[in-house]
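Forwarding the complex inputs:
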Amino acid sequence: MTVALETSGFILGIEYVAIFCCAMVGGLSAVRKGYDITAILITAWLTALGGGIIRDVMLGVTPVGVSDKGLVLTALASGIAVALLHPEVDKLKWSMLTLDALAMALFAVNGTAKAMGLGASGMTAAFMGMFTALGGGLIRDTLINEVPMIIRDRHWYFVPAAVACVATVFVCKADFAGLINLQGEIGLDLAIVALAVAMRLLSVRFNIGVPGAV
Amino acid sequence: MTVALETSGFILGIEYVAIFCCAMVGGLSAVRKGYDITAILITAWLTALGGGIIRDVMLGVTPVGVSDKGLVLTALASGIAVALLHPEVDKLKWSMLTLDALAMALFAVNGTAKAMGLGASGMTAAFMGMFTALGGGLIRDTLINEVPMIIRDRHWYFVPAAVACVATVFVCKADFAGLINLQGEIGLDLAIVALAVAMRLLSVRFNIGVPGAV
Amino acid sequence: MTVALETSGFILGIEYVAIFCCAMVGGLSAVRKGYDITAILITAWLTALGGGIIRDVMLGVTPVGVSDKGLVLTALASGIAVALLHPEVDKLKWSMLTLDALAMALFAVNGTAKAMGLGASGMTAAFMGMFTALGGGLIRDTLINEVPMIIRDRHWYFVPAAVACVATVFVCKADFAGLINLQGEIGLDLAIVALAVAMRLLSVRFNIGVPGAV
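Prediction (whole assembly, three chains):
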């Protein structure tokens, strides 16, 4: 039941940064609509941790988004930070995009690995990873009454998340079969994260979209 | 725990057709809004299987919408089909309406029967049936940011679903009490499906609405 | 696992009144949009009981909103009442606001106490109380495709609910530690309810808002 990427303090640190940033993206969308501080905090918290809440509810375990003090306080601190510093945050477009992509990729890998550890099948685990990676943004856009970004955004967003989840399923299966050790698993997981972040950023940078209906 | 209508290969086949069609209705709504292929696939999948996901989460079992390969692949195949063939699908208004009504009725009967089989009370099972039948459409309309059809549509949609769910509760109770055998249960279930489909289609054909507030 | 405020028949009566009123607020919002009677019933039911459904799903128990006949019938009766009497209900602005605040406060206290009784940690229980108090309104506004009131309303709504939930956690902990008896717990719970209602009403009366982003 160990999630490989959470055994290393360094990578756990990156995940807290990702949650902080993800909450910032969420809080910023509430700031832009002119909502008050409670709305900013709710949106920040649910954007960062709502995807994991959906995953945990489906897996039948207590959602970490309401039970892990460190995660909750990180998300709320991020909401307060964006309420105070939003003009600065607004300027960091590419930094935000990068951190948001990092959060998406880490959530996809960790969400999938958590589900595999709880005994889910490969397909179910991949779906759980996608809910973790994409669910928070979906809740955020529902809260502020917009079409969710995974529906609206024509750049690659769902695609890198799906690739990361499916790849993680294979890594977990290799681990269960004893084909790789913990170091190998961490290395492969990081490669998956890097791949997903690169796909997302290149797609935005070079305006590569997903085709629509014919 | 056996759902009567799923013991027969013939009726199981009808259910796959219903899921295919339900996903088509969902995918079509994303096509019409001009969204890309990932949005079409997500909408198709959640329209067809989202209601069952809500039911299974409430019943505390692993959602078949993320764990049953056959169901998931059927929904995704339907999303791809509608992305390729939507001008043809658009012409099939009455066929689509009929298949959508069939999906609603089958989901209501099977959702209720599944909950009864898991030991839910009659009222809880009826609600589970309604979530199965109506939840997918609700998620679809939330995703594309429209008022859900069960709220918006003045024709009978909720009413036939509710009738089918309540009738299925009585059929299941008769089965548990040993009053009817499997053949009898299948027969009664099919009669309920036919009744619900007829109510839905007649309501649209003759523009019969539900009264509003006085 | 006993929820203190539900041991007394008198307070249980108040809770039914609160649910009736909460459903009325929900039904009224569907009436105002011109939706039909099934939409009014669905909105009334989910506004009154949807928050508790979210809480129970997260806690992994059968949602009372689909299994408790008394609660469900109260919510549906309220929906029918508002469909028949909405011009009268519309005139009761302050009565409605008071009963809605009462419902929010009772839901916050009882939702938190229920989660504590099921062994949740203090923080998790406080979140469960907030989901109970605020989830119904969130579902209602999603159904009718508006920005949820907790996001939109600049008066205190989230704040009194949060205060009530956190205070209830301390009361429950004092009870578990044997510091207070049942009478003491009921007294403190009622004081919390009164405080939350007062905060909400004073905030609306004197137009006290929550600050936005700087």
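Residues 4-205 of chain C form one domain.
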